[in-house]
Design a protein that fits this description.
This protein is an alpha/beta fold and about 850 residues long. It is built from 26 helices and 32 strands. It has six domains: about 150 residues, Orthogonal Bundle (Isoleucyl-tRNA Synthetase, Domain 1), CATH 1.10.730.10; about 200 residues, 3-Layer(aba) Sandwich (Rossmann fold), CATH 3.40.50.620; about 45 residues, no CATH class; about 190 residues, Isoleucyl-tRNA Synthetase, domain 2 (Alpha-Beta Complex), CATH 3.90.740; about 60 residues, no CATH class; about 60 residues, Ubiquitin-like (UB roll) (Roll). The protein starts with a helix and ends with a strand. The structure holds one RNA strand of 87 nucleotides.
Length: about 850
RNA sequence: GCCCGAGUGGCGGAAUAGGUAGACGCGUUGGACUUAAAAUCCAAUGUCAGCAAUGACGUGCCGGUUCAAUUCCGGCCUCGGGUACCA
């Protein structure tokens, strides 16, 4: 083989330099990942290198990534991207002397497993175990530095025992209640569907039309925590978009309740508004079709049949239709009932319309057509009065909704004020005269917490004919899922568990008489709402985690995951943690210190990866063909970590080339450890740049900087061992196997994660000389190399002395000169 | 509709306390090595004009501030994400 000969001839090393390795004559120009990677994985995992040490004396650092759902299709490149950021940070932190906890587990309850089980007549337990085993294999083949001794599996009774325990605590504290609501139901499949499964009003499975069906639903009163969840965001370091999405989800608004007397009755219509300042412009009122006052005053209503028809119509409109028909507002005037505007004293008509939601505010509004788009549209359609109360718009064109500028008019006591002042004054007035009060509303709704599914945590409640709803005693947990063969969906839309008598029938914990279990299970969000706590003490049989371990590990220092989980999962888990804090079960109100989110990896066609598009990349194929390190490097080099980026096969090859280049320069490493002065500044800059970039999720530029350094190295005849080792350390969090191999080939015996992270000398970041740009009128005309920190005056005179610059200036007078130290000279003529 | 984010070469993307636009990688072209190919190495590569030195233009569009704008300001357009008749 000619390559071997070439390497032997080129190498400045003798065979005995390779201390622990093989003789130079066996060196090949491309590393063998199939040999190297499993070798180091085995040595790392066998020596428990990545285990977080409870009560360790080093400072702790807790890195958390969103644990996967172990699907049958194995790992996705998206998983790799999601984990690689904190993989790099975790390895770096270990080198910086931290006791790192970087755990992983499985969010294994869920519909795909259940559906697969039904279709193939295999128990979900069996499927889940198989999938978890496959995921474990793949995670290890990728060389992730997870602490595999702390695996949690949400479907393990020893885990969901505590999921049920937390549910009972919520129940005990009045945060669980039952209510009726409408759910998406597929009449063909006889199954209740989530919003995700019924998008566009069509069943995800069979394509038939989804109908709304009334159901009993268990709710968790997350709205009781709305304010705290909003406030808690101040203690969560995150990007703007992550914060704003949560704020919008919670949806706090401030305004007032106002009472409008119902004419000729003792009743009042309570409305919520964010614009009490526009009350003088309220020319009619709108109630949600379901509003209770309609029922109460049905006798006075003259057009009862019309009203009832509209109510029925509204009820049968699906979510989908309501959105589709959004533009076309409908409603019915309630004949026989009228309201009085408490400020103008005028009598105004009342309507019911489905653009007012019974679930938000008070289910009734004062309509101000002059200054609300929806009210404007409605008023136009039904020919209602439009009164201008804020000057600045053109009411023949549309509602004027600007609150920044505009002065109150036609508004009695608040005339002449701006919106902000008018709001304050009118709210005061309303309160003083018992006409209304300050109020806050949230868009967030209570969390519907039950599913009609088999493969989920049973809800630990019992129905007793005598005692009513009785919680299962804590000591009887877990309520285990029965290991039965058949768990087909029922025809009635009830949970499959309802068909299993040995599960349903039980005795009442209070009176010991025969009773029946709740047959619904919890949603998939349940298990993931507290898993970060279980990692701290994953095998504790008697508590979520021991207090002293919670105290030692504290909050999650850095949590990375998908943008799609920023609203629901993040808010749900923060809710549970805050609740557990309030009842003294955890030590921090907020569970996470910092949250980041990776961007999506798209297919090579720029579209979202999906089986139907056929653009899915199997990470395991790349690990096989080019190695885990190549995949790890490319996943980070692919683009801005926080942005969506398309996959590119050639990019993978480029990363492999980069790693091979580092491998191939090994024979040029000189045993002499003197620092190469020529590269001193570049090496220092690279240490600083790579470290900073890792911390800021700029992995693409970090790798670019290491490529630049490697390119410089490859120009040299010999590379100082010290310089080369610095590069290996910087690269080790990314290409962990290759760098480990080379590190040992240099004769080192430690693992790289046990080594110290390189430090740089701030004095040596600057070169001795620097290239200055000379501008004429702001355009680059010449360049000049000068010593660093040359005084401005000297710089200017040297610039003017340049031949080209003299030509450009000619005999024109110089109007102005600008000198920026170590950067440029600009001469204005 | 509203709220975020983003628009830069053939492609992924660099560079914003305003100061050399296009780092790094991919691709392409030419060359070296080879019987040949792969691999590797060297060189070129924003567009236009020119043999060249060089010049003009160029960061979604229009305008502004400045000696100097991808970066700041005003007004748009397009794409991606979130949310949705939330009063």
């Amino acid at each position: 083989m000619p390559e071997l000969r070439w390497y032997r001839e080129q190498s400045s090393l003798t065979d005995d330099f390779l201390l622990g390795g093989r003789p130079m004559s066996e060196f090949i120009p491309s590393f063998n990942h199939r040999e190297i990677e499993p070798k180091w994985q085995k040595r790392w995992y066998d020596s428990q290198l990545f285990s977080g040490e409870d009560f360790g004396h080093k400072p702790k650092y807790y890195t958390l990534v969103e644990y996967p759902y172990p699907s049958g299709s194995g790992m996705h490149v998206g998983h790799f991207r999601a984990y690689m950021s904190l993989e790099v940070i975790s390895r770096k932190r270990r080198m910086e002397g931290y006791n790192v906890l970087f755990p992983i587990g499985f969010d294994a309850f869920g519909l795909p497993t259940e559906n697969y089980a039904i279709k193939n007549k295999i128990h979900p337990r069996e499927i889940t175990d198989k999938n978890i085993a496959e995921f474990m294999k793949e995670l290890k083949a990728a060389g992730f530095s997870f602490d595999f001794s702390r695996i949690v599996d949400t479907t393990d009774p020893e885990y969901y025992k505590f999921t049920q325990w937390i549910f009972l605590k919520l129940y005990e504290h009045g945060l669980v209640y039952k209510s009726k609501t409408y759910v998406n139901f597929c009449p063909d499949c006889n199954v209740v569907l989530s919003n995700e499964e019924s998008q566009g009003g069509v069943c995800d499975r069979c394509g038939s039309s989804v109908v709304q069906k009334e159901k009993d639903v268990w709710f968790l009163k997350i709205t009781a925590y709305a304010e705290k969840l909003l406030e808690g965001l101040n203690d969560l370091e995150s990007s703007q978009r992550i914060r704003v999405e949560q704020e919008n989800w919670i949806g706090k608004s401030e305004g007032a309740y106002i009472f409008f007397p119902l004419k000729d009755t003792k009743d009042k219509i309570k409305v919520y508004t964010t614009r009490p300042d526009t009350i003088y412009g309220a020319t009619f009122m709108v109630l949600a079709p379901e509003h209770e006052l309609i029922k109460k005053h049905i006798k006075e209503i003259k057009n009862v049949q019309e009203i009832k028809n509209y109510q029925i119509e509204a009820k049968h409109k699906s979510e989908f239709e309501r959105i589709q028909l959004q533009k076309d507002k409908t409603g019915v005037r309630v004949e026989g009932l009228q309201a009085i505007n408490p400020l103008t004293g005028k009598t105004i008509p009342i309507f019911i319309a489905d653009y007012v939601m019974i679930t938000y505010g008070t289910g009734a509004i004062m309509a101000v057509p002059g200054h609300d788009d929806r009210d404007y549209e409605f008023a136009k359609k039904y020919g209602l009065d439009i009164v201008e109360v804020i000057a600045g718009g053109d009411l023949s064109e549309g509602a004027y909704t600007n609150t920044e500028s505009g002065i109150l008019v036609n508004s009695g006591i608040i005339n002449g004020l701006d919106v902000a002042r008018a709001k304050a004054k009118i709210t005061n007035y309303l309160e003083e005269n018992d006409l209304g009060e300050k109020a806050v509303q949230f868009k967030m709704k209570d969390w519907a917490f039950n599913r009609q599914r088999y493969w989920g945590e049973p809800i630990p409640l019992v129905y007793c004919r005598d005692c009513g709803i009785v919680p299962v005693p804590y000591e009887d947990l877990p309520v285990k899922l029965p290991m039965v063969k058949e768990f087909m969906p029922t025809e009635t839309g009830e949970s499959p568990l309802a068909n299993i008598p040995e599960f349903v029938n039980c005795t009442c914990p209070k009176c010991n008489k025969p009773a029946k279990r709740e047959t619904d299970t919890m949603p998939q969000w349940a298990g993931s709402s507290w898993y970060f706590l279980r990692y701290l003490d994953p095998h504790n049989p008697s508590a979520i985690a021991a207090k002293d371990k919670m105290e030692y590990w504290g909050k999650v220092d850095w949590y990375n995951g998908g943008m799609e989980h920023v609203t629901r999962h993040l808010i749900y888990s923060r809710f549970w943690n805050q609740f557990l804090y309030d009842i003294g079960e955890v030590l921090h109100r907020e569970p996470y210190s910092k949250r980041t989110a990776q961007g999506l990896i798209l297919g090579a066609d720029g579209e979202k990866m999906s089986k139907s598009r056929g653009n899915v990349i199997d990470p395991m194929e790349i690990i096989e063909s080019d190695g885990a390190d190549t995949l790890r490097t490319y996943i980070l080099f692919i683009g801005d970590y926080e942005m969506p980026t398309p996959w590119n096969e050639n990019g993978v090859r480029g990363c492999r080339r980069f790693l091979d280049k580092i491998w191939r320069m090994f024979p040029k490493v000189s045993a002499i450890t003197t620092i190469s002065s020529k590269l001193e500044s570049l090496v220092n800059k690279t240490i600083k740049g790579v470290g900073d970039d890792y911390e800021n999720l700029k992995f693409n530029t970090a790798i670019a900087k290491m490529m630049t350094l490697a390119n410089e190295f490859s120009q040299l005849d010999t590379i100082s061992k010290q310089d080369y080792e610095i590069l290996l350390k910087l690269l080790s969090p990314v290409a962990s196997h290759l760098t480990e191999e080379l590190w040992h080939m240099l004769g080192n015996e430690s693992f790289l994660v046990e080594e110290k992270w390189p430090s740089y000398d701030p004095e040596k970041l600057m070169e001795d000389t620097i290239e200055i740009v000379i501008n004429i009128n702001g355009k680059v005309r010449d360049k000049l190399v000068v010593p660093v920190d040359l005084p401005d005056s000297e710089l200017l005179s040297r610039a003017k002395a340049q031949e080209k610059i003299k030509e450009w200036i000619g005999d024109k007078p110089i109007k102005k000169t600008i000198v920026v130290k170590n950067k440029l000279v600009n001469i204005v003529i």
